[in-house]
Amino acid sequence: MIRRLTTAALALTLAGVPQQCFPASAVFSMDAARVYLAPGGPQLIHIDVNKAEWQKAPLPEPFPGQDIVAVALSNSGYVLCATAGALWAWDHEKGKCVKVCDAPKDATIDDIAYRVSDGAVLLSVARGDRAFGLEILPKGVAKTDAIFCRRVNYLQGIVFDADTMCFGANGDLWEGAIERETDDAGSKKAPPQAMKSWLAAYRVAPLATLETGLGTPSQIGAGQVAPAGSRMYVHIKRMGGSGWGHVVRLPKPAYSDSLAGDDFEGRLALYRKALANVEILAPSGTQSFLCASRGGERVFYRADENKYFIIENNGPPSQINFKDAGPLTEP
């Protein structure tokens, strides 16, 4: 049953969204006509953007009772749903759901990203005394491989733009790639601990407003990220709290291996260009559900006062005027 969506109704449905994390909580369908939201709990909300209609996605077993923590879209058009303990693929058209893989041993999944170029899935995980880790699941493989990460504590809002990996770290916008050991022993330096892959990335836009003091923090930084054509959209939100933030966009930074090493002048030029062209689109102090369609022709996000926006071809934001057809029962 499809219902007309009210902003008050959707606010009630989204009431359980965690405020301190930035997983991939929304994704467009392949045709860019629908958005799937993971609002917290064992459910998905399916929004028809063109019709401003919604319905709770009819997820089959084993989802009842299992919170969906992140979503992504596969090349086959399946909605990939991560729970803490496993990764699942849901075929919306056929109403079928299959397990792709379990979480790595002694770990829980807290975010996922899909690499379109080869169908690999990146998993952000938490593991025991090591609070953060990355794992990669190559296409057609049932078990993940660990990725060596150095000098980053945690990645926020991971998403792939072709092979380029975009994410927030320490409040700033980063771009990079997952590199892998090759057969030519002289061409790549193998990471420690027998890991075959490692994260190689650079800060491309210093967006964090870092501070320290006696009181609770008011600093904000990059969380969810959505590349769309020539632009990069970022949800910048309070770090270590909730209550304020912004959805912004800027020209997509040009990731290049030439930034490696001590090219200080090159880094400064990159930062100047990025910061000089940041455009604030809307205040957003809660979960923004920021996402871009596969082709970059559409961007979707939620702003403060539970207002929803769609952007076509990097043009001006247009508010989605959902129509009232009665209250929504809490899931």
Class of secondary structure makeup: mainly beta
Helix proportion range: under 10%
Quote the average pLDDT: 84
Low-confidence segments, given as residue ranges, are 1-21, 325-331
Summarize the structure.
It contains 2 helices and 25 strands. The chain is mainly β and 331 residues long.
Structural write-up:
It is a single chain. Strand 3 and strand 4 form a beta hairpin. 6% of the residues lie in helices and 43% in strands. The longest helix is centred in the C-terminal third of the chain and has 13 residues, at 264-276. The two termini are 15 Å apart. It has one domain (3-318): TolB, C-terminal domain (Neuraminidase). It contains two helices and 25 strands. With 331 residues, it is mainly β. The protein has helices spanning 7-13, 264-276, and strands at 3-4, 26-28, 34-37, 45-48, 53-56, 70-73, 79-82, 86-91, 96-102, 108-115, 120-127, 130-137, 145-148, 156-161, 164-169, 172-180, 197-205, 220-228, 231-238, 245-251, 279-283, 291-292, 298-303, 307-312, 317-319. The strands form five sheets. Strands 10-11-12-13-17-16-15-14 form an eight-stranded mixed β-sheet. It has a five-stranded antiparallel β-sheet with strand order 1-5-4-3-2, with no helix packed on it.
